[in-house]
Write a structure and sequence with these properties.
There is one protein chain. It is built from 6 helices and 14 strands. It is of the alpha/beta class and 279 residues long. The protein has 2 domains: 167 residues, ATPase, nucleotide binding domain (Nucleotidyltransferase, domain 5, 2-Layer Sandwich), CATH 3.30.420.40; 82 residues, Nucleotidyltransferase, domain 5, CATH 3.30.420. The strands form 3 sheets. Strands 8, 9, 10, 11, 12, 13 and 14 form a 7-stranded mixed sheet that branches. β11 and β12 form a beta hairpin. InterPro entries: ATPase_NBD (IPR043129), Gcp-like_dom (IPR000905). This is Gcp-like domain-containing protein. Pfam families: TsaD.
Length: 279
């Protein structure tokens, strides 16, 4: 379902902490919410790639098929990977909302949406495990949201389309998912190793994507930056916004906690080394 997002969705008034998304249409595969559901959304997928004013963080809101109401947002107090502020941030947010009378018992949570990658190996695992645990305890369902879809929702209005979101850069390659707009993923023929989370792209295969803009963090390989300059492809910084994760979650299927898994851009290094050592 990763490429089945509602076409023509638009932002409602209110901005990053008070707005929402109203899909003009949904397919059965892409529209996971039928009635307003209290949702906790977690965006900690790329903590080392986030810049000032951008994730990681969590938010709680009510998600329906035609409107999203954001109740509150709490950003993590440290972006360093070894400082785990995720669960404390969730507790701080819940306490604030409970004090304001906006929510009550934690078992009211219907859905836990997690930005599942591609991204940092540790950050993704922490987020997915936390999401699973919370869902198991509260009886909620889980929603896995590709991190590229989270980033795409905060694309600049003047960014040329189609544009790509490049994540999980390593050595000379990045994982790129292509969008026709902030809510619409484009499925293209394989220019270089296509997967459900995007294409593994290097400088010499970038042109085949046909993008006019690229959202990429500071880890984008220099060879790809040079190629973008040669092709006239504009590069913007990504915004990792937990509210964007909440918004995007309306388009994806709810699954049992056991089915929530990270999306890695390539085989994890630890797995590769283990296989090499032990066959």
């Amino acid at each position: 379902p990763w490429d089945r997002l509602p076409a023509g969705a638009h932002r409602l008034e209110g901005g990053p902490t008070g707005g929402g998304v109203k899909p003009d249409s949904c397919t059965p595969l892409s529209c996971g919410v039928k009635t307003a559901a209290l949702t906790l959304a977690i965006e900690v997928s790329n903590p080392s790639a986030a810049h000032e004013g951008s994730g990681p963080g969590v938010t709680v809101g009510r998600v329906g098929s035609d409107h999203i109401e954001v109740l509150g947002v709490e950003m993590l107090r440290s972006k360093r990977r070894h400082d785990d502020d995720l669960m404390p941030a969730i507790e701080r947010l819940w306490s604030q909302l409970a004090s304001a009378g906006l929510i009550g018992d934690k078992r009211e949570i219907d859905r836990v949406a997690v930005s599942v990658g591609p991204g940092g190996f540790t950050g993704l695992r922490v987020a997915v495990v936390a999401g699973k645990m919370i869902a198991e305890v509260t009886g909620a369902l889980c929603v896995g949201v590709p991190s590229a879809c989270v980033v795409a929702r905060r694309a600049g209005s003047d960014l040329p389309t189609p544009f790509g979101v490049a994540l999980a850069s390593k050595k000379e390659s990045s994982v790129v998912m292509v969008f026709d707009g902030p809510t619409q993923v484009v499925r293209l023929s394989e220019p270089g190793g296509a997967h459900e989370y995007g294409h593994v792209i290097e400088a010499d295969t970038l042109e085949a994507l046909g993008v006019r803009g690229l959202i990429a963090d500071r880890f984008l390989p220099e060879s790809m930056r040079t190629r973008c300059s040669e092709l006239g492809i504009r590069i913007d910084e990504p915004v990792f916004d937990p509210v964007a994760c909440l918004e995007a979650s309306a388009a994806f299927k709810e699954v049992a906690p056991i089915e929530l898994v990270p999306m890695y851009g390539r085989e994890p290094e630890a797995v590769r080394k283990w296989r090499e050592l032990h066959g």
